[in-house]
Write a structure and sequence with these properties.
The structure is a homodimer of 168-residue chains.
Chain A lengths: L3 E7 L2 H4 L3 E4 L6 E4 L4 E9 L9 E9 L7 E8 L5 E5 L6 E5 L11 E4 L5 E4 L4 E2 L10 E8 L6 E13 L1
Parallel strand pairs in A: 1-9, 1-13
Antiparallel strand pairs in A: 2-10, 3-4, 5-12, 6-13, 7-10, 7-12, 8-9, 8-11
């Protein structure tokens, strides 16, 4: 495959902070709930939804029909100017994301790639550029928390130079 | 155990409609996304969050520290007047809920119990009375989508007569 190579590195809250939040059970976030029957890890993501045009948060499920093998050619990214978007695996599996900081322009050199540990989700901040969702295995299911409502909430950008996405 | 017996029946969207939504992959809700790499099941829950007092939706994870065995004595229910509350299992496991319609008063005879099929979550409408979350196995993890912010968003009610919750 041609194009610049982009290697996915393990995701951490610190590395991912410019793009959004990692949704996982960090020990330092633990609190007791329901008379200590449960541990609760609160406020793992900033749900930021534009209310204009009947905007509201919504829950959906996305299920992969096909697996995407790596290396994988990335030639397009998208962003959602009207809201954050979270993807949380509904079982233990890893997935790979490609992201760029919010801003008017983005090209291949601005992008970073991350791989989860199988027990993490992500929340993209409003406007974060990202590769459309891919799954490493068919059948992988994600809970999606994003925006329902009117207005144009998806902008796509074709990269001048494609990337080849790989795992380490 | 004493008290009225309440048997949990399989949850369905229709049975649960007075209390909230069942979050699952109903075939009739399927749509293609990302160039047909994924199926997406949209708008599975009504996220209804009071914005006053800095109210906003938030994502959390709740992990069971202990298993709750059935039959189980239910002597208290709670409701959240300022927002809906969703629980979505982060792996395939069943769980049991006890619910009553929103309203000022609730007693044992007003409550119903449901059990999921292992691949379903629930969203309680704002104000729905419910038993505090229990898990059938320790370690069960739920994604929680509810309200962060000020104000009193939890009201508890001790039942005049306790219930004994059972599976069929």
């Amino acid at each position: 495959m041609n194009g610049r190579k982009l290697v996915a590195v393990p995701i951490t809250p610190e590395r991912f902070a410019p793009f959004g939040q990692v949704i996982g059970t960090l020990p330092e976030r633990r609190q007791a709930m329901n008379a200590a029957r449960f541990e609760r890890f609160d406020h793992l993501a900033s749900i930021d939804i534009e209310a204009a045009d009947d905007g509201r948060p919504t829950l959906s499920i996305a299920r992969a029909r096909i697996a995407t093998a790596l290396p994988y050619r990335v030639d397009m990214v998208e962003r959602h100017p009207l809201g954050s978007q979270a993807f949380i695996p509904l079982a233990a599996f890893r997935f790979v994301v490609v992201v760029g900081r919010p801003g008017e322009s983005v090209e291949a050199g601005d992008l970073q790639a991350f791989v989860t540990n199988g027990h993490q989700g992500v929340n993209y901040n409003r406007g974060t550029w990202h590769m459309p969702l891919i799954a490493l295995e068919a059948g992988n299911e994600f809970l999606v928390v994003d925006r329902a409502g009117g207005g144009n909430n998806c902008e796509e950008h074709v990269l001048a130079e494609p990337l080849t996405l790989c795992l380490e």
